[in-house]
Amino acid sequence: IIATNVDGVYDKDPREHDDAQHLPEVSIDSLLDQYGNEWASAGKSMVIDGPALQHIKDNRIQTFVVDGRNLPELQNVLEQKSFHGSKIIV
User: Fold this and answer.
1) What is the pLDDT, as a whole number, of residue 35?
2) DSSP character for 47?
3) Cα 61 from Cα 53, distance rounded (Å)
4) Do β-strands 86-89 and 9-10 pair in parallel, antiparallel, or remain unpaired?
5) Is residue 40 very low, low, confident or very high in pLDDT (cuts 50, 70, 90)?
6) CA separation for the pair 37, 88 (Å, rounded)
7) For residues 72 and 10, is the Cβ–Cβ distance under 8 A?
8) Whose CA is closest to 28, among 9, 6, 4?
9) Phi and psi angles of residue 23, each rounded to the nearest 5 degrees, phi first
10) What pLDDT score does 45 carry?
11) CB-count exposure of residue 52 (10 Å: 0-12, 13-18, 19+)
12) How many CB atoms lie within 10 A of CB 65?
């Protein structure tokens, strides 16, 4: 579980783009295609860094991204209930 300050993975930074689309599910391969598996340059905003993405893929780690400030949603993930966030498909 990645508990962060946004409520999941978006197609672009929702803090900078009003038209950012929330992705309830996203494949690890599409994230790797978009961000790569290297450390990102300074200032690039992403929920998961490149090496972590590669680790998730290589080890087939079931991964969920949720707003860690929203404790009921975090609890839903922990209890394997429906939640508002993103599931990374490996």
Assistant:
1) 84
2) S
3) 10
4) unpaired
5) low
6) 15
7) no
8) 9
9) -115, 100
10) 65
11) middle
12) 23
Contact between 16 and 6 (Cβ < 8 Å): no
Banded pLDDT at 38 (limits 50, 70, 90): confident
The pLDDT of 20-42, averaged and rounded, is: 87
Residue with tokens 């930074």: 13
- Looking at residue 74, the DSSP 8-state letter turns out to be H
- Residue pair 55/61 in contact (Cβ under 8 Å)? The answer is yes
What are the tokens at 90? Answer: 């490996």
d(CA 13, CA 80): 27
Residue 80 CA from chain centroid, whole number: 17
